[in-house]
Amino acid sequence: MSRFLNSRYSSLKPYVPGEQPKNISEFIKLNTNESPFEPSPMAIKAINDEATRLNLYPTPTGEPLMSALSKRYGVPTSRIFTSNGSDETLAFAFLAFCGKDKGVCFPDISYGFYKVYAQLCCVDAMEIPLDKDFKVVPEDYFNSGRTVVIANPNAPTSLALTLDEVESIVKNNPNDVVIIDEAYVDFGAQSAVSLIDKYDNLLVIQTFSKSRNMAGERLGFAFGGEGIISDLNAIRYSFNPYNVDRLALVAGAASIEDEVYFKQCTEEIIRVREYTAECLKKMGFEVLPSKTNFLFAKHNAVGGEAIYLALKAKGILIRHFAGERTAPYVRITIGSMAQMEKMLYELEAILNEYK
Amino acid sequence: MSRFLNSRYSSLKPYVPGEQPKNISEFIKLNTNESPFEPSPMAIKAINDEATRLNLYPTPTGEPLMSALSKRYGVPTSRIFTSNGSDETLAFAFLAFCGKDKGVCFPDISYGFYKVYAQLCCVDAMEIPLDKDFKVVPEDYFNSGRTVVIANPNAPTSLALTLDEVESIVKNNPNDVVIIDEAYVDFGAQSAVSLIDKYDNLLVIQTFSKSRNMAGERLGFAFGGEGIISDLNAIRYSFNPYNVDRLALVAGAASIEDEVYFKQCTEEIIRVREYTAECLKKMGFEVLPSKTNFLFAKHNAVGGEAIYLALKAKGILIRHFAGERTAPYVRITIGSMAQMEKMLYELEAILNEYK
């Protein structure tokens, strides 16, 4: 920290992303919920075709991505927002809808970045405990008097609320914005997009990082009422108007249009996830019923950190979270079937050493 | 604006980028200081090679871009920052180095976004008038007690300070950060990068948008003391850690390594600029001595807005800024020689109508 930094940030604790070792190619990487599959071939082609036009700024209207999203989700472009990763939409939303007089609340076990945004924006944050089964209890968020942020499905727990449960939270916070972060929704949960016509206080955020295999492109999108979307645009045009680059605009549009590939990839992840979950259970794991591209699991004899370290020593990266309730668990991203077979093979060997 | 927007933003006036008409392909576009040239062929190849790896997050270390910048500019990576366009570095710097107790100052005629950042961060902004010849007067910024932001060369005036003048400002604000925005420096001005070892309060910002022909990729970079750079990283890791995507990282690195193409493009812009300036002078324009990829010029008989509108009607977009001192002028981006010849031809016809 320099002597020049604004004192309000003196105790800022930035987000710590999943580890990315320098010799990453030597690892099977199951620690940051990336997809094992390439982007849609149509997206790759679109990137190659667009690269020679990079001397020009991106379209300020977000075309052709906006039209593709509008068509795919049946939402007019005036209700869509795009950003440099969904993290940026979250950051803009904290700026727009939280403040000195408006705190925020979110589950005590969730995406770690919510706490960081609250710190950055100097916003009072209330962490609401998950229940004993790691579930979000909708009633705990009713009439919160705060901006509500809920990841659905939640991370790292992998559990999803039903659409009715989400609606109950939105309905019971009529004077506050409810942000539903649907980064993992395409792996089996119900999206709240259908509710944006009904509630002007709902913001639904999605991403190309997981189900669309483009974590490296940095592209997020969101749906909401026209008021909320225009607020986000006011922040964007005061922070970084050209936040989505030309390649992301064409790759995103092409990816959205390639529904066949999208279904193929997400269905394969779900298939491999269910297989992996069954194998883990046979090895003595308790596995939470996942609606995401990862599993959150606890072994009946070996601790989470020990498993994490032992797999790392074998060249397989998974994620372990400190914290009283999460420490017994590991979070394992669903990779390709071959990667999971290798992980399961090494895991079995590790567990045998404990017998 | 929705009923949910934080009241501190109720009077926010977002930045208005140069116009991008929908039927843009019908225009010769000389209004947003883009390059008429494609990115380096090496950058295009790097993008094509990397596209299949977009399922993985970018490297958090910013490689391979960081190493390329370090080598090219002779600066260790601990003193380099990269961002999603240089606008994002500016936004992060306003968050980090301005605040309730620390105002900002910048020239009254400069990049219009500085005012917007000050508004967004609720920072007191002092606009310091340029002198009668549109020059920044270094002494006006001495011991300002504020964060200082100066575009060098300045926009839309196109004028540059010497390195000694810049150093005098940095030296005479020892307790405040001085930000030198060098978006246009490669077209003939002196960079202040060499001063970062000497002054811990200096931040030098550059971009790939102008001299490296990649406005559409959104890639900025900055040099400063380790303290300042670590402050910017603290903000970045609390806002959007993966702010630079994989394609930008490889395209940026390849572009930096292709020094031959960089020189070829910047020298051609300078050659076309000098030619265009001479032609404009012959037509009765007063042209400020530009060190940028644009010209700021005033005709002795026809007003700036009239010229702007007449050229637009002929399918040529240039930029006009309202404001007492800028209204008589137009800002013309330097395109290819063919584009400038066409612009000059149409301009001559327009001026003849006023005779």
Structural classification of chain A: alpha/beta
- By DSSP, the count of extended strands of chain A is 12
The order of strands across the largest sheet of chain A is 2-8-7-6-5-3-4
Greatest contact between two chains: A-B, 89 and 89 residues
Write down the Rg of chain A: 20 Å
Write down the secondary-structure element order of chain A. Answer: EHHEHEHEEHEEEHHHEEHEEH
Looking at the chains present, what oligomeric state does this protein adopt?
A: homodimer
Low-confidence stretches of chain A: none
Q: Beta-strand percentage of chain A?
A: 5-15%
Shape of chain A: globular
The termini of chain A sit apart by: 48 Å
Q: Helical amount among residues of chain A, as a percent range? A: 25-40%
Alpha plus pi helix count of chain A: 10
Describe the main β-sheet of chain A briefly. 7 strands, mixed
Question: What is the average per-residue confidence, as pLDDT of chain A, rounded to a whole number?
Answer: 96
Q: What would you note in describing this structure?
A:
The structure is a homodimer of 355-residue chains. By secondary structure, chain A is an alpha/beta fold. In chain A, 34% of the residues lie in helices and 14% in strands. Chain A contains 10 helices and 12 strands. The first copy, chain A, has helices spanning 41-50, 65-73, 86-97, 113-120, 163-171, 226-236, 246-257, 259-282, 304-313, 337-353, and strands at 28-29, 80-83, 104-107, 125-128, 147-151, 178-181, 202-207, 220-224, 285-287, 294-299, 316-317, 329-333. In chain A, strands 2-8-7-6-5-3-4 form a 7-stranded mixed sheet, with helices on both faces. In chain A, strands 9-10-12 form a 3-stranded antiparallel sheet. Chain A has a two-stranded parallel sheet with strand order 1-11. In chain A, a hairpin with a 6-residue loop joins β9 (285-287) and β10 (294-299). In chain A, α2 (65-73) runs parallel beside α7 and α3 (86-97) packs across α6. Chain A is globular. Chains A and B meet through α1, α3, α4, α6 and α7 of A and α1, α3, α4, α6 and α7 of B.
